[in-house]
Write a structure and sequence with these properties.
Length: about 150
């Protein structure tokens, strides 16, 4: 069952990509609350603060300053309090080696960032129900979404 409003956390250092993502969410038929952090250290501080509500899903860019998406993902999966957080890796890279490594670390979904707005809406629309319904919670199913 999808929650009435999804709490989404986006970790991405590219301001244009963040604005693009926020606009895409507004096109979806689901209510969302979006929080954005701009680097890996901000992300980990937000998630481990104890005062912040853990989001329903994290969209995590691979290439960020201060801590990469790889480093953040590894820290998330090693932390008992947040290890079950659904993580959607979000990047322009389409390297099979990188994607394979991300899945081994614990990513649930990999989204190749499209440059077209309608394609972005489409891939987010497909990724959100996967995260919201935790259909991959046993860790056996992994998804790659390309527009």
């Amino acid at each position: 069952m999808v929650p009435e409003k999804l709490n989404i956390l986006l970790a991405d250092d590219d301001t244009d990509d963040c604005n693009f993502f926020e606009k895409a969410l507004k096109q979806l038929p689901v209510q969302t609350n979006l929080k954005i952090v701009n680097d890996g250290e901000q992300l980990m501080q937000f998630l481990t603060n104890g005062e912040n509500k853990i989001p329903d899903v994290l969209f995590l860019d691979i290439n960020m300053p201060r801590k990469t998406g790889f480093e953040c993902l590894a820290e998330i999966k090693a932390n008992k309090k947040i290890k079950d957080l659904p993580v959607v890796m979000f990047s322009t890279s389409n390297s099979h080696e990188k994607i394979s490594t991300l899945f081994k670390i614990g990513a649930h979904v990999y989204v190749h960032k499209p440059s077209d707005f309608s394609q972005l809406v489409q891939v987010i629309h497909h990724a959100l129900p996967m995260a919201a319904e935790n259909i991959f919670s046993n860790g056996q199913i992994k998804y790659i979404l390309n527009a």
